[in-house]
Specification:
By secondary structure, the protein is α/β, with parallel strands linked by helices. 37% of the residues lie in helices and 16% in strands. It is built from eight helices and nine strands. The strands form two sheets. The protein has a seven-stranded mixed beta sheet, with helices on both faces. Strands 6-9 form a two-stranded parallel sheet. α2 links the parallel β2 and β3. It is globular, with a radius of gyration of 17 Å. The two termini are 20 Å apart. The structure holds guanosine-5'-triphosphate and magnesium ion. Guanosine-5'-triphosphate binds next to β1, β2 and α3.
């Protein structure tokens, strides 16, 4: 089964080679890594490029120019993965908050589920204990109270960014629908998936604080999250299983060649 791990990067020069090596060290058969870099000033894109020689045929890099944002980076990456023929698509951060060791378990669970979420808020899941209490509280409040109750979802970690998708789930979602660009993108994707009646499993993870590099969280990204949750609820209020996209059309835009 062809598996593609999609990692968006912005200034992750300290992490990109290590996270790639850790993923290939898992020895998951037919694993591919796709880095979607937004022209990082710190040279992440060049480092990713140089890794193609180390993992011939299995390392993919998309360089976006003049564009920023997690959401559109992921949509670009997902389309690439679908066009490439991946059967399973994993999404994760570059900074080791999402630890590669969970990937095999998530892939195994995809046999029974359409989406598997690495979750901080199911029993056994944990946040980095180095976080101060107020940061834990804020994260819990935003996720468990603001988003979860408001959207009336069964998913415990709605803002999670560590996920494994079946190809057919990403096809059925209709990626053209998705509007968010900041980290609320994660909420929108999970919400659509649940409304469309796909089977979702959350497996507990330990969410580690990033140890290298710096955060890209901005006030704009946070504000988008606050208002977009309302928009998400309104836009998708009538969405049902019947609204799954049946025939996926390949994206077919320019895809960089793979050596
Ligand atoms: N391509 C792309 N990737 C991004 C962008 N913003 C963030 N990322 C990547 O998305 C992932 C998550 O971003 P982080 O900065 O770790 O966000 P966070 O986990 O909320 O913040 P930290 O507490 O610093 O870890 C990382 O791999 C980033 O490099 C962007 O605009 N474009
Ligand atoms: Mg992070």
């Amino acid at each position: 089964m062809c598996v593609m791990v999609v990692i968006p990067t912005y200034n992750e020069a300290d992490n990109v080679a290590d996270i790639t090596a850790a993923l290939f060290a898992l020895r998951v058969p037919d694993l591919h890594v796709l880095i979607v870099d937004d022209d990082s000033p710190d040279g992440t894109g060049e480092i990713a490029e140089s890794l193609r020689a180390r993992y011939p045929g299995h390392m993919h890099v998309i360089h976006r120019h003049g564009q920023r944002g997690l959401g559109t980076a992921y949509i670009t990456g997902f389309r690439y993965a679908l066009d490439f023929g991946a059967e399973a698509i994993v999404q994760m951060d570059a900074d080791f908050s999402h630890q590669p060791r969970y990937v095999p378990e998530m892939l195994a669970a995809l046999r029974e589920y359409d989406l598997v979420i690495g979750s901080r808020y199911v029993p056994g899941g944990r946040l980095d204990e180095r976080w101060p209490w107020w940061r834990k509280f804020l994260s819990w409040w935003a996720n468990s109270i603001y988003v979860r109750l408001f959207l009336d979802t069964h998913v415990r970690d709605v803002t999670a960014g560590f996920k494994a998708w079946r190809r057919t789930t990403l096809e059925g979602i209709d990626l053209d629908r998705v509007r968010s660009n900041g980290y609320v993108f994660q909420v929108e994707m999970t919400y659509i998936t649940e409304k469309l009646g796909y089977r979702i499993l959350e497996i507990p993870i330990y969410f580690r604080e990033r140890s290298d590099g710096s955060s890209k969280m901005t006030t704009g990204v946070k504000l988008e999250a606050v208002w977009r949750v309302w928009q998400i609820r309104w836009r998708y209020r009538h969405l049902r299983r019947e609204d799954r996209l049946i025939s996926y059309r390949p994206w077919g835009k320019h895809i960089p060649p793979v050596e």
